[in-house]
Amino acid sequence: MRELAFIETFLRENAAYVRERHAARGQVTMTVKSNASDLLTEADLTVQQRAAAALAEAFPGDRLVAEEGEHAVYPDDPNARCWVMDPIDGTNNFVRGLFPCFGISLAFAEHGVPQAGGVMLPVSDHLFLAARGQGATLNGSPIRVSEVQEVGGAKVEVEFGWTTERRLMLERAPDLIEAVGQVRCTGSAVVALCQIACGESDGFVHMTLTPWDYAASQIIVEEAGGLATRLDGGPLYLFDGKQGLMVSNGALHETLIGLVKPR
Question: pLDDT (tens digit, 9 = 90+) per residue, 177-193?
């Protein structure tokens, strides 16, 4: 698949740059966006600009939807070919350094559904790739979700988001937080979902989240045997304007959905 090959090449070529900027993070230019925890670094901008330039050359006419600047706009036609990117998901982890848990995320989508995706974790040099109907891999080896079936033994990522979103999580998901065996929050959705894909975690819940935060890792989870839906169990389309995301190993999905109160 030409799109998957592009994703792999781009992620590999930019991993070293992100590692270098992370190592020198004390000198990285940084600004604040919507709130004090919503950070933007020169590394985010550079990786996104490189993607836009590379896509314009390789796939002229395709749209790039990404987290920063002019690209942070949904396409007029939600079914058209487009690319969905988060240049660095987990920017707070990137700038703090003690917990270097962040990733470069790029997906190709059509009909509002990811068709191919890749996530590169630059510090550990882990590359996750998937294409629709072709399975998912980690550094070339096939990966599979866990077989955990009991919620009391499950490890679930509960991403609380910005301060304005936390009350919604506490109102809708207290039963889930109390029921699962382990609650985690890595601060990076793509990392959390990739952990599900390779069987290291079992679920993920978020009350909002934008497509660039999960598009690539969504297909990685699905191709590894997991499920990704809205919080009511309905289908997940990237640009439908709806909010809420539940991702799991599949075996726990119905149970986790049932533990979230309807809005």
Answer: 999 999 999 989 999 99
Asked if 113 and 208 count as a contact pair (C-beta separation under 8 A), the reply is no
Can you state the angle between helices 42-58 and 2-23, rounded to 10 degrees?
160
pLDDT tens profile 100-148:
899 999 999 999 999 999 999 999 999 999 999 999 999 999 999 999 9
Cα 107 to the center of its chain, rounded Å: 10
Which CATH entry fits the domain spanning 2-142: 3.10.450.10, 1.10.8.60, 3.30.540.10, 3.90.1150.10? 3.30.540.10
Residue 86's closest CA among 230, 229, 194, 217? 217
59 CB-near residues (< 8 Å, 6+ apart): 3, 6, 81, 83
The whole model's pTM is what?
A: 0.93
Residue 167's beta-bridge partner residues?
none
Average pLDDT over the chain, rounded to an integer: 92
How far is Cα 226 from Cα 136, in angstroms, rounded to an integer? 11
DSSP H helices, the chain, are 2-23, 42-58, 91-96, 166-172, 174-179, 189-197, 211-223, 253-258
Alpha-carbon distance of 206 to 160, in angstroms, equals 7
Report how far Cα 5 is from the mean position of its chain's Cα atoms.
Answer: 19
User: What residue segments make up the domains of the chain, in order of their start?
Assistant: 2-142, 151-258
Fold classified for 151-258: D-Maltodextrin-Binding Protein; domain 2 (3.40.190)
Per DSSP, 262 falls in state P
- The vertex-159 CA angle with 111 and 153, nearest 5°, equals 100
